[in-house]
Amino acid sequence: MQNIFMRISNQKGFTLLELLVVVTIIGILSTIALPAYFSAVEKSRASEAEQLVSEVSKAQRAYYAEYGNCDGGMNNYMINLKTLTQTSVGGQTAYQSRDFVYTNVSSTGFCAIEAQRRLASNPYVIGIVSIDQANAALANKLYCSAPSSDATANRYCAKITGATGTTGWNASNKYYSLR
To answer: Could you tell me the residue range of the domain that residue 27 belongs to?
Structure first.
């Protein structure tokens, strides 16, 4: 009988029940931690876009002060865009990073810079209105916008900004103020 107890106590390893408990704990922790991790990563990506959009907006305002329009495009704003790849969007010059495509938006009395998130689905936009002669209150305001019908993109904007979406100049989008 003593020989049987010696064999059992010398066995090494985990029981199936112990392994099951560990796997369950890991599963519970990952369901809590992964969404928070992805949210933090998305916020850091958005802050990178905010920084570049703000920098380009300053150059855009200076260009507007000198020439009276923003039609020159981002490549004329005298800023360093060497870290970005030049591309074309809708027939106009745009620049892209790994995560965003940056475009110049202009019409009479209105200038903005937008960075569209490069996602296959649920894209959102980080932008800033540099000049708005019709509504000066919108000028120099950073925003995040997403299609009103896209719940996931709106969740991204809400998490990034901590704000509630409102309608703006494009009725099919919701706008979230960054500052």
So the answer is: 11-177
